[in-house]
Amino acid sequence: MAKINILPPEIYNRIAAGEVVERPASVVKELIENAIDAGATQIKVRIEQAGTKLISVSDNGCGMDKDDALLSLQPHGTSKIKCVEDIDRIGTLGFRGEAIPSIASVSRMQIRTRQHDSDSGFEVVVSGGKVEHSGPIGCAPGSEIMVRELFYNTPARRKFLRSNATEESYIDEVVILAALANLHISFEFIVNGRQVYFSAGDGRLEPRLRDFFGRKYAENMLPVKFESGNIRIHGMIGQPGLTRSSRREQRGFINGRPIESQAIYRGIRDGYGTLNERGRYSPCVLFITMPFSEFDINVHPAKREVRFRHEFNVSRAVTMAINAALRNVPAPESNLDVSVSLEAILRGAEIAYTISEQEQPQLITESQFKEPVPSKQVEFTNPAEDSNKWHDVEIAEPEHIAEEIVPTPEIHDVTEEPISAGYDDTEEKPVDSREFVGLLDNTYLMFYNEDDKSLEITDQHAAHERVLYERILRQSASNQTLSQPLLIPQMIELSRPEAGWLEKNEELLSKLGFEVAALSSNTLMLNAVPAILPQAAWEEVLHDIYLAGREASPDDPRPALERAAAAACHAAVKAHDVLTRDEVASLIEQMRHCERPDICPHGRPTTIKITLKELEKRFGRR
What we know:
Oligomer: single chain
Number of domains: 3
CATH topology of the largest domain: formyl-coa transferase, domain 3
Shape: elongated
CATH class of the largest domain: Alpha Beta
Number of strands: 22
Distance between the termini: 74 Å
Strand order of the largest sheet: 5-4-3-6-2-1-7-8
Helix content: 25-40%
CATH architecture of the largest domain: 2-Layer Sandwich
């Protein structure tokens, strides 16, 4: 008896839908690509309830006749490929012929289309992949495809969707990528009946960057124009100093198609070199044009990834393009009115100064070298004689850079299960047998542990991150989050997906101590911040909270809160911040009460230990 069965279309299409239709954003992407391939100059996207209730994409493209409308619902029905050779020179976006039948198999779909030279249009109504109605209809030239009740017949798939705010942010990104890649096409995006943005098809990149990502973003971008062999690159890159915590804002396009490519990411990284610190990524929008025979887009069902024939050449071209653009960074300008004296400027700025009697200090003479120079080295004493004494270490007493390091307030037990448990003040903690012996590079705190005669080195930034992280979670778990209203509310410009997601997640932000209000599609008014984080780069903090929270399940907000709390640790003291003795003592005391004092919220160690055995081995005593 035969064991191999030929799958019927309804089963095959659902399997294909699992590869092509991951979420509502996948539907929007496929329908927009079809509209672009149809030669549209105007595209309107409408969604309701993050695309689960309605996705509508209409265009003024070439439209279809009756036969094409019905054939588009057949598996692998496509107008983009006619022979085997076409596969090696694919210049269109949608070409597999899987999108329409796959989407129709997991939704209720309605297609309305009309060719420009036709007097009437044609309509097809499909439910779960089966045609329920078709016939003539009056409609405008072009096509409109409406997808309702996505995943209505596959509830398991619908269950795995994220929150509406997160799914909407994915759709936002799809529309933005399409609009950036097709500057000659006018895009309109409508969410729940409200127009989010409208961009004219004027062919200019800068206005779209400003509309989608904000004025500050657009003003800090540099133009790129480069050509090497058969590779041409143009677009915009961020000026040095404009960075993000992830590479999500590094957008690359190959012949107008948005793609993800490690070769391009490597080229961007090498192009900036040491201008970006580790773990920071400069935003960019790069358009690469090259022969279709030099890359293969047919390696991923959703056409996200691309394989280059010569990856090194692509990476090198991107690196050289960025290097050339960075060489044109304008020098900072100073608009100083030379008609006003320097003395008047300083007096107006309330800066006190005195004129030195000599323009240059005297050089140290040979005889002065014989005078004893005060030692700045750490003075070690016998720990057994004075186990609690602070040694005579030269620690500056500047303004309190880390004023938020204060003695830990009394925390009461929380009856509900905490996200990250606090500590019980009644529990007797072991006496800290460590002695502070010095600082290394104003970053690492060094302690002598007399119990095992070891040297312990603590990263002050990682340690303070752990303290703030656990405190935020304790307060959130006990509903004791304290906000500090800003005397002057701060306007924060973000990308449209970020601002939209944050606006819809007020509850999560409130648990962290933030209070925001929407001013426009990509601008928020920050009215209050967490009381324990009075100073931070709030734009960066909110950006990281968005990245951390968008992947959370709506049924379990705790992971989102934990990741958002970790993102909010920007206010922790940094490397090279000079701490006072009291601040060091307070930080270490709070570390003793942390649940996981050994690692920071991002997984890095807070403290490393060098044992006496290791030292003896290094010095050849063992």
